[in-house]
Amino acid sequence: MNSTRRILGLLKPYRGKVLLGFLFQTVVIVTRLIQPLITRQVVNDVIIAGRHQLLVQLCLTLLGLSLTRAVSSYVRVQMMERASQNVAYDLRTGLFRHLQTMSFSFYDRNRVGEIMSRMTGDLEGVRDYLAGGIITMFEQGITFFGALVFMFTLSWQATLTILAMLPLIAWIAFRFRSRIRPAFREAREQTATLNTRVQENLAGIHVVKAFVREQYERELFEQENRKLLGVNLKITDIWRTYVPIMHGLSEICTPLVLATGSVLIATGHMDIGTLVGVTGYIWMLTQPMRMLSQIINSMTRASTSAEKIFYYLDLGPSIRDDDNPQTVNERKGRVEFDRVTFSYDQQPVLQDISFVAEPGQTIAIMGATGAGKTSLVRLLSRSYDVISGRVLVDGVDVRRQRLKELRCGIGYVPQETFLFSESLFENIRFGRPDASLDAVVAAARAAQAEEFIEEMPLKYETVVGERGVGLSGGQKQRTAIARALLIDPSILVLDDATSAVDMQTEYLIQQHLERSIQGRTTFIIAHRMSSVKNADLILVLNQGRIAERGSHQELMALKGEYWQMWQDQLTSISGEGGGV
Ligand code: UTP
Ligand code: MG
């Protein structure tokens, strides 16, 4: 009920259109209600009493009513369609905007396919209800009660026979609604699950094909699809049970009224014209009864769809600006971790991390896979909040800073490159959409991306596919480095940013980066020892703790974990017969 009320609330900005819609709908109904009165006059005055001169006038009135009805219907549909399309637009925009504010943890928990399902199918369900469902409800309701009143003035006895049926119909409608509601909810959930399957399959189609898992994927899909079929059939079953009952009850009305009317005529309490008029109302009374199941259907479908949309809208971002944010006067890139502890859920990922990076320094973070390197740099841009301790950027706790200002100062090259299906030019200037071609070229040069871009047929205008399809892993990474450099950040984060390039290119990138990182605090996460050797501070993470810290010389002298990694790499390289 609550979500139905909220759906109606969405119509508020369009109340003018909606009121006009309802007004014209009322006109349609009134013209319908008047019609049997005229038929009654035709029978009594024209046919029985023989006043034939009235016929033309009555027929013209009927024609006038039909015309008015047609025009009003047109305006009504126009108004309601516009209002509902506008609401759908607002809802889509609102939902998308809201999704942009949501934090990473939300995306960790909610699957893309499911969100897409809310944005499309569920939204359309709500719109459909606003455009048609509500007006049908209004139309049938007014018609029913209007017809009752008009019929009552013609014959209260005939009206009472119909009123006697009402409690039974209401009870059945209530039963129908309470059974179909959970089924609709289940159907919405299952649709979302199915969409997720499709989305994940498509996103990972390379893996599916490489591992020849098409058959398995097909079976998984069919399994979910069968479940959806099951739920939909369940809805049909409920529908099949209740619709004939409701229709049957409405059918009984006609003989009941006819019987009552006949008795009344026989006893001299009713004339024939009145009986004809009364039968004209029977349809108006029974039609809403027949439509009741459809109305309940549409309303329930919309409210279960809306539930999920509103659920998303009600979730606030877990990470948002401080109510009273502190401004950083000068962004120099000083970073301090002060006894930081962090976890995604229960399992601790980082423990007791403390270090300082002075402006312009290069900090290398090393450690085995899963040690917490990516997690550590994510805290810097406040993608997640710490459990305890503080992360300070330029002396201010990141939680006190405006997210926008904080993140604008950090150039981030993520471990997994993501590019948009746009031109390389637009991809590189993603963080600074007003950047000139010269600036883009300079950033590409610094990231060693210029050469391969120049070789492309359309150069910077080359459009890459979804997620960067059409580029090699290393080319994607270099584009991402250029993108990060272009925003001229005070802090640069390179999370395994050269993992996909060959040693020669990595060396070249480093040579160029030397110049580009001048004056920026740079965090380098790398597995190749040569990339981290010159760092001012090397942190070796082990299961979320800093196991060793210092410069290359200091750590080599320590002969600990770092030294061991160095030895291992030397051995593997010389073992392969290559040089360092
Ligand atoms: P990290 O992603 O920080 O590890 O995950 P890492 O050091 O960068 O590893 P590589 O070198 O890229 O492979 C640290 C821990 O946090 C968990 C992981 O399971 C891992 O144990 N984790 C990571 C989560 O629980 N949720 C995430 O979203 C990411
Ligand atoms: Mg990582």
| Radius of gyration, CA atoms, in whole angstroms | 36 Å
Gross morphology: elongated
Helix content: 55-70%
The secondary-structure class comes to alpha/beta
Q: Report the CATH C-level class of the largest domain.
A: Mainly Alpha
Superfamily (CATH H level) name of the largest domain: ABC transporter type 1, transmembrane domain
Bound molecules: uridine 5'-triphosphate, magnesium ion
Count of runs of 4 or more consecutive helical residues = 20
- Which regions are unreliable across 5 or more consecutive residues at pLDDT < 50? none
Strand order of the largest sheet: 6-7-8-3-9-10
How would you describe what is shown here?
- This protein is an alpha/beta fold and 580 residues long.
- It folds into two domains: 13-314, ABC transporter transmembrane region fold; 335-578, 3-Layer(aba) Sandwich (Rossmann fold).
- Helix content is 65%, strand content 10%.
- A six-stranded mixed β-sheet has the order 6-7-8-3-9-10, with helices on both faces. A four-stranded antiparallel β-sheet has the order 2-1-4-5, with helices on one face.
- Helix 17 (503-516) links the parallel strand 7 and strand 8.
- Helix 3 (54-101) packs antiparallel against helix 5 (112-154) and helix 7 (166-203) packs antiparallel against helix 9 (214-266).
- Residues 108, 344, 349, 367, 369-375, 415 line the site of uridine 5'-triphosphate.
Quick recap of the structure?
This protein is α/β, with parallel strands linked by helices and 580 residues long. It has 20 helices and 10 strands. Helix 17 links the parallel strand 7 and strand 8.
